[in-house]
Amino acid sequence: MTKVTNVLIVGVGGQGVILASEILTEVATKFGMDAKKSEVHGMAQRGGAVSSHVRFGPKVFSPLIAVGDADILLAFEALEAVRWAHYTNKDSKILANDLRLIPTTAFLSKGTTYPDDPFAELEKSGYHADKIPADQIAKDLGNVRLANTILLGALSKHLDVPEEIWLKTIEARVPKKTIELNREAFQRGRGAL
Amino acid sequence: MKKLLSGDEAIAYGAWRAGVKFATAYPGTPSTEILEAFARLPGIYAEWAPNEKVAVEVGIGSSMAGARTLVAMKHVGVNVAADPLMTFTYTGVNGGFILISADDPEMHSSQNEQDNRIFARFAGMPLLEPADSQEAYDYVEYGLELSEKHDLPVMVRFTTRLAHSKTLVNVEEKALDKELRGFKRDIKKYVMMPIYAIPRHKDLLKRLADVQAEAETSPMQTVEMQDTDLGVITSGVPYQYVRELLPDASFLKLGLTHPLPEKMIRRFAGEVKRVLIIEELEPFLEEQIKALGIECTGKEFTGRLGELTPERLAVALEKAGLKPSFHPVKTPPLPALSRPPVLCPGCSHRATFTALKKTGAHVFGDIGCYTLAALPPLEMVHSCVCMGASIGNAVGVAKAGGSQKPVVAVIGDSTFLHSGITGLLEAVYNNANVTVIILDNTITAMTGGQHHPGTGKTLMGTDAPKVDLETICKSVGIKHLWRLNPMKLNELETALKDSYQIDGPAVIIAEYPCQLYPTRLKRIPMIVDPELCNGCGACLRVGCPAILTTEELSAEGLPKVTIDADLCTGCEVCAWVCKPDAIKFPVLEEVEHD
Fold first, then answer.
1. Does A109 fall in a domain?
2. Which residues of B touch A49 (CB under 8 A)?
3. How many domains does chain A have?
4. 3-state DSSP assignment of residue B29
């Protein structure tokens, strides 16, 4: 890799977006690259939209990805893929969890509503998102918390980093008892498409 | 050892490495994690102070005692601490002293976006501006040496972007061994009465001149000479953006930005055809460089508002007639339903504001999670200015006679102890007709659950005396006081109505623990009886994320509601507002009686 790779990870407060971006950043540094991760927390942790910018390559200056410059957009929730789609360009990849989390404001707002099908909404505007059924797979595996690892598995397919680095990094971050399950979740995510 | 550290963590590790033994702070986004990280390191003392002014005063004491000292706060905290700081530069230090100012351009989690570099200049503090975590780490040690060498407190100023970004840092495994110098009586240095302050002010100017001379050759300033058609002078995180957008330009990146290295700037400006200044917020560098008679531009392209982002800066550079390496796309964001932060399910503030809405009142707010009650659907916070302002605001409205409704101040426990007590004293002394509600969830919640003098624990994890809010209120002269659980909404409503009838101030201490800290609370989730729900939407208007609408319509043609069992904590606020009594606890099991 000679150029800088930009991965924007988005979702809703409490979904584990920050942890996932930490893991990705660690993976990149273990692969010998310079890496920066940036997000703002504070008021955002109370159920708000969360985004985390991860950039890695031989030398990274800016901690932020510019609008239109994300190589990969990884969305933990479908509406969040819509919200951040403009960070991508025609060569980018959008990976989105097939999950709808409807904000409280939806029942009170008179204008915009939660779209019936966020994926169709994206297509209409010229974006294509690959649908990752992460929550469904996680339920099949018996633990909804695995959605995080499944999404990282899906992301890993699009990055040129050895699988072992991913697995080692994830294993160091999850409870010992769930290591095997997380390995499986990662593989299921990798094969999800 | 290379470690991925946030700017905040890097400050903590850098301070530890440099032999800082004493650190104090009041929590405030984006600075909170500095002390949390520092407190976990060995061989140090770290504490939460009741507010930033006290933190700086304690820090001055620690410096007088000869310990290397770190005091951290968010930008607006420096306003609170301004009084001691403005004179501390006169006295100077014994042990090196670093003041961290974590600014918040874009107001990600703040009430304003003031640029505290101006404070450094105002008070006469040397100013360091790191641009990534490695620099944050290095600048603390450099700053402490500067502080001790020139007998001055030093400000390290950075922004939310640096505080909450993680980048690689070379971390030393051992701390420097700095012996405690000890306090030495020196009346002419430490007693700032006119006879001694006058010469110390003169001395301050001399000390600053010495720092300026050092700034000319400081390793914190870096020059990268490339194409000399354009020379960019910049500091802090904006360097990272402009360095990437203009990869061929020449750069003067300043790490020590007060006092400015005049000769170095003149030399750099003389070697390039055009000088561009890139900085966030105020034209701090630009105005001073223009005052040197150097022709330059900057703010006319970047503006003075918000955070510089790569795309905003790219637009500014194009406006300046340059060709940045990145052209911002013109694609506007797709319309997406907003997802604003909300009060957590089960938060007792929801109960308090629901009761306030029912009784009707003008409510003057403060700094904390409860400010979120200003947003729809509650809209029951009607002012938010600064820490502790609620009570004073309410007294002013009541005294001026400008409200036809009851006048209420709401203030959290941590904020009350920070700077609410003097406001309450004012309400008592001048007999104001106000109801003050202390929202006591026994934690500093907004910043992520920090202890304070009312929680019974210290930052280091030891037990502490727990200050009693009722005793404080009574001792300042409050005669009418209720101490209640706001989740018992009928009691709260009665107390509110009674308090409105009183001549003079009344206090309601609304006690209920935070849903998240110190431990997450969860009880049996409630359910909606679809037979009884009439779709009136009263429960939706308490603004709880656990209440959802369904496709099923009531006889009135309105969507019925349901409750998300994962999110619901069983707090019953929605049940209290439900007229048809459709929200209940599930009947768990039919109990067989003998």
1. no
2. 338-339
3. 1
4. coil
